[in-house]
């Protein structure tokens, strides 16, 4: 295939995207409205003639617009896949680096918080808002399996092997990739309605049964609950307070800190309250955790942008120094914002 210059490549991409959306042959006037080239219809017609001569687009009948040829689809998809694979690779590298740095910082700040307040402290690693589909890539693994890679908001990558009931060729996978990304990118699972699924199935033809499984994988990627990382410090501070230091109460509290499952429940309650970006105080029986009904629990959500959230918590006696605790939490939130959003 002859290497295309930047202008021809952009026009070809515009033709393919428009055709995927409308299913109708595409004319030069349509392209002049939707591309960022600021070219006249006459100039675009000349470029389209060149693309047709090179075999990237075809004219289905006289006086009609153009549609992509198989060679045009191939160039578009190869470049799209290469671009998206690099994006996924960059996302994974960035997330590994960011997660490692985040873990070191959170382990340190929870120790400082315990030292400053003299209570038991905890903090979660961030969770990611993953409401929208960013990219879908289907790749052939064998004659009876394909790999579906789903990237959702927050740059979360979900891989899923789909078992096939019958073989699928490379051209069919190509067309499925084009169709899925054209229709689903930027959508939430609620926006993927029955009409859209029906249209996707029609475009998939004999492979329409794959669409349901891919939609299920998308839903799974969006709703999948990751294990929550909880970092704690200052657990032994509990023994400083007589009302919490008898063997039964102390044992229950220590167990909660060691198992961390109950702590995660506190955080899930805090972070699930979308409107709450302030500080929550649970006193005694208000605590969502049974073993902490003799304590006060103060929690707050910290936000790192792009749908990234975590929770800070401090556990102490009901007679805790609330003013000091609130001041420390506010200060910590500011520090986290400075560390991760400005550096």
Please give a structural write-up.
- The protein folds into 3 domains: 6-68, Arc Repressor Mutant, subunit A; 100-125 and 228-341, 2-Layer Sandwich (Beta-Lactamase); 133-223, Heat-inducible transcription repressor hrca homolog, domain 3 (Enolase-like, domain 1), CATH 3.30.390.
- The two termini are 45 Å apart.
- Helices cover 51% and strands 20% of the residues.
- The strands form 3 sheets. Strands 3, 4, 8, 9, 10 and 11 form a 6-stranded antiparallel sheet that branches. A 3-stranded antiparallel sheet has the order 5-6-7, sandwiched between helices.
- The chain is elongated and about 90 Å long.
- A hairpin with a 3-residue loop joins strand 6 and strand 7 (156-163).
- It has 343 residues and is of the alpha+beta class.
- The chain has 11 helices and 11 strands.
Features:
elongated, 6-stranded antiparallel beta sheet, alpha+beta, Enolase-like, domain 1, Arc Repressor Mutant, subunit A, Beta-Lactamase, 11 strands
């Amino acid at each position: 295939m002859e290497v295309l210059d930047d202008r021809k490549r952009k026009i070809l991409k515009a033709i393919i995207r428009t055709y995927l959306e409308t299913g109708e042959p595409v004319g030069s006037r349509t392209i002049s409205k939707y591309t960022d080239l600021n070219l006249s219809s006459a100039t675009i017609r000349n470029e389209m003639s060149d693309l047709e001569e090179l075999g990237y687009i075809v004219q289905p009948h006289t006086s009609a617009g153009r549609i992509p040829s198989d060679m045009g689809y191939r160039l578009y998809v190869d470049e799209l896949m290469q671009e998206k694979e690099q994006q996924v690779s960059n996302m994974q590298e960035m997330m590994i680096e960011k997660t490692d740095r985040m873990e070191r910082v959170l382990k340190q700040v929870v120790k400082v918080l315990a030292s400053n307040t003299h209570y038991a402290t905890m903090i979660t690693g961030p969770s990611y808002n993953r409401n929208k589909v960013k990219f879908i890539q289907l790749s052939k693994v064998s004659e009876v399996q394909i790999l579906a890679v789903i990237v959702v908001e927050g740059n979360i990558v979900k891989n899923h092997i789909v078992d096939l009931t019958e073989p699928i060729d490379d051209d069919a996978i190509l067309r499925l990739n084009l169709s899925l990304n054209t229709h689903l990118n930027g959508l939430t699972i609620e926006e993927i309605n029955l009409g859209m699924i029906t249209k996707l199935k029609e475009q998939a033809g004999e492979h329409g049964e794959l669409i349901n499984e891919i939609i299920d994988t998308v839903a799974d990627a969006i709703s999948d609950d990751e294990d929550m990382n909880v970092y704690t410090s200052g657990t032994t501070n509990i023994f400083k307070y007589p009302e919490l230091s008898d063997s039964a109460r102390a044992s229950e509290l220590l167990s909660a800190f060691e198992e961390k499952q109950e702590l995660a429940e506190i955080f899930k309650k805090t972070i699930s309250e979308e409107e709450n970006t302030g500080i929550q105080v649970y006193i005694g029986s208000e605590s969502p955790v049974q073993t902490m009904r003799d304590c006060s629990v103060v929690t707050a959500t910290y936000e790192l942008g792009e749908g990234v959230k975590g929770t800070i918590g401090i556990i102490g006696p009901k007679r805790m120094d609330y003013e000091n605790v609130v001041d420390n939490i506010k200060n910590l939130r500011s520090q986290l914002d400075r560390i991760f959003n400005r550096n």
